[in-house]
């Protein structure tokens, strides 16, 4: 089921939570809505799910306008950050719930419910917990059950709002991979809200980066990381160094007085001698090895701003550096944004 959103707006009082959103979600894709707190991700998800109404704009499911349909009629499954499992029901009954409350003529018989629930519990690899209560599960297990419950009614669209937000880092990581594999099996059109860039890049087919109610960029994880469209995306996804033209960064030449060059830490070369006449003389301030990379912080003469550089361990070992070394740096890749474009 594809989703089309055209010129969608939503205002809360005088605050514009969604500002002219245009978005096409392809059938069967897993899309991440990524952005800082308050950028409008949840509002957009709630409008798609029918829990909130847009002020203006279009919302189509497979070409059909669904704005007049209530949440139930939209055939959408939800998973939220705070597991909304029923505490007094077993895992089995939680997953069966959506089937049992269907109108009589659509409701499967008891044998069919049993078959479907066990099939779903197997899918999320937790059938062995079917007679437990939510309080007897770990947070990660609860979220997998919440997903099984959302899938029970065979939704055409799955909406996940920070589903792993309340879990610790290790469990989060495992569940992300698990969700990706599950999606590859089921291919339900899914929208996943997160403020965690690593999560979005790892899980999604495409990422929608949002800021202040607007879409800054839509692209594959590779595109948004390697070719950020705006200063905001550069800074929100991954680390970046800013070189201001007023500080005489040679790479901003031919741009205005207020131009800024954006450079990723791993896109900077370090050398004992100037690489060419655009090389910047700097002093090494700090060297720190972190796993397979070495982080080197340098500063230009008379500047208190540190420039962060990442080298592979091999590269560092071939030409080791120490604090106090005078070296030259030059970006291999960068992008200049003009005055007024900054985030
Ligand atoms: N019902 C509401 N009434 C008034 N303001 C609201 C309402 N819902 C959301 N907002 C405001 O709209 C803006 C967008 O909120 P939204 O929840 O969509 O952001 P978000 O990106 O999901 O943030 P978070 O990650 O913190 O949940 C926020 O400034 C929020 O305070």
TrEMBL record:
MF GO annotations: ABC-type sulfate transporter activity; ATP binding; ATP hydrolysis activity
Q: Reply yes or no: does the keyword Membrane apply.
A: yes
Judging by the UniProt lineage, the source's domain of life is Bacteria
Keywords, alphabetical? ATP-binding, Cell membrane, Membrane, Nucleotide-binding, Sulfate transport, Translocase, Transport
Give one Pfam family.
ABC_tran
Q: Please give an example of a GO cellular component term from this record.
A: ATP-binding cassette (ABC) transporter complex
In the UniProt record, does the keyword Metal-binding occur? no
Domain called ABC transporter: residue spans: 3-237
This protein is called what?
Answer: Sulfate/thiosulfate import ATP-binding protein CysA 2
